[in-house]
Amino acid sequence: EHGLWYKCNFYEQSVRIPLIISGKGIPTGKRLTEVVSTVDLTATLLDLAGIESIAPQDGDSLIPLMNGDNDTWKDEAISEFYADGSTRPWAMLRQGNYKLVYSHHDPLELYDLEADPGEFHNLANDEAYRDIVDHLATSLLERWDPVDINQRIIQSQKEISHLLCIYLLFFPQDFTNVVEWFRLQASRGDVHWLKPVVAKAGG
Q: CB burial class (10 A; 0-12, 13-18, 19+) of residue 11?
């Protein structure tokens, strides 16, 4: 889809998955159109088992929704991506038919999945959708801080690189493979601070 062969994106073909729930006490033959998330499954399983959570949950139990309480359901899902190939924090917020894609320092993307299920028409710069963009962006950034996340990721990567340098002191035979991996990551632009680290390790 969209000429891509990998799943590292927020298009529906990548982030949307079927969710089928069956069991004792679960309504049968029912299909729901509300937006739900896999993070809701933990709260749902605890609810089904009659167990009270001992820790805060990011998700909500799906039991009320399955029993017909549609009016109070949040109708949203959040997805994040920080894996290989990403150069900055990247997140998606889906609420109802609208999907906002936020890549730190990049232009926003907004899609109306009812009118444009293929996600070919970015509405983020359309003045008619300005209120929707503002609402979704505010809702996402109230719960997701890309600046803090980016700083923590870079710090974690630095710590890993330093551990690898220490590893090479004890296993110098692996030097070529480790340094080539560093160079590959730096050339892809995944983490820009790797270049001086590689130079230091090589020197």
A: middle
Per-residue pLDDT tens digits of the chain, which is 203 residues long: 777 777 788 999 888 988 999 888 788 888 998 999 999 999 999 998 899 888 888 899 999 999 888 888 999 999 998 876 667 888 999 999 999 999 988 899 999 999 999 999 999 999 999 999 999 999 999 999 999 988 888 887 777 777 777 777 777 777 677 667 666 666 655 544 444 444 444 44
Distance CA(166)–CA(30), nearest Å, equals 57
Distance in angstroms (rounded) separating the CA atoms of residues 16 and 14? 6
Closest alpha carbon to 104 in 59, 166, 45, 148: 148
Angle subtended by helix axes 175-188 and 194-202, to nearest 10: 160
Written as six digits, the tokens of 45 are 């399983």
